[in-house]
């Protein structure tokens, strides 16, 4: 059974940093694209970042570019999201995702239905 389990969320102040982790189990994900979406109350799911199985070519939403960094450790079947300079608008439930599909265009990465596996999410709350 495939599972994606997120951790590292919490309550922080604006300007602080957090590091989210996503541990994958049930199979090896070293050749699949993994990433993060987030969903704030009353809003649709929003793409944050993704990274290929090789660990190259990270993709970021404009809102994350320059502040967030996605990395992965295939020896641990884990993907990370380092979030710096957090803002109140970053408040959301952050979901880890993975996909077996080959994503070619940048626009492919931001579509939720292109991801086959989803974690339950971890809450990130940023106070002003």
Separation, N- and C-terminal Cα atoms: 40 Å
SS field, number of helical segments: 1
Category by helix and strand content = mainly beta
- Enumerate the spans where pLDDT stays under 50 for 5 or more consecutive residues: none
Number of strands: 11
Return the average pLDDT rounded to an integer.
95
Compressed to H and E, one letter per element, the order equals EEEEEEEEEHEE
Q: Strand content of the residues, in percent?
A: over 45%
Shape: globular
Feature tags:
1 helix, about 45% strand, about 5% helix, about 130 residues
Task: Provide an overview of this structure.
By secondary structure, this protein is mainly beta. It has 1 helix and 11 strands; from the N terminus they run βββββββββαββ. The chain has one helix spanning 106-109; strands at 3-7, 10-13, 18-25, 33-39, 46-51, 59-60, 68-73, 78-83, 92-99, 117-118, 122-127. The strands form 2 sheets. Strands 2, 4, 5, 6, 9, 10 and 11 form a 7-stranded mixed sheet that branches. A 4-stranded antiparallel sheet has the order 1-3-8-7, with no helix packed on it. The longest helix has 4 residues, at 106-109. The chain is globular. The N and C termini lie far apart (40 Å). 34% of the residues are buried. The model has no long low-confidence stretch (mean pLDDT 95).
């Amino acid at each position: 059974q495939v599972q994606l389990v997120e951790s590292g969320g919490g309550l922080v102040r604006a300007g602080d940093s957090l590091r989210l982790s996503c541990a994958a189990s049930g199979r090896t994900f070293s050749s699949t694209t993994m990433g993060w979406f987030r969903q704030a109350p009353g809003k649709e799911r929003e793409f944050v970042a993704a990274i290929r199985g090789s660990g190259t070519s990270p993709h970021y939403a404009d809102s994350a570019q320059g502040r967030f960094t996605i990395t992965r450790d295939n020896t641990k079947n884990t993907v990370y999201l380092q979030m710096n300079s957090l803002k109140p608008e970053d408040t959301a439930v952050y979901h880890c995702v993975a996909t077996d599909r080959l994503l070619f265009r940048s626009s492919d990465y931001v579509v939720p239905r292109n991801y086959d596996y989803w974690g339950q999410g971890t809450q990130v709350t940023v106070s002003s």
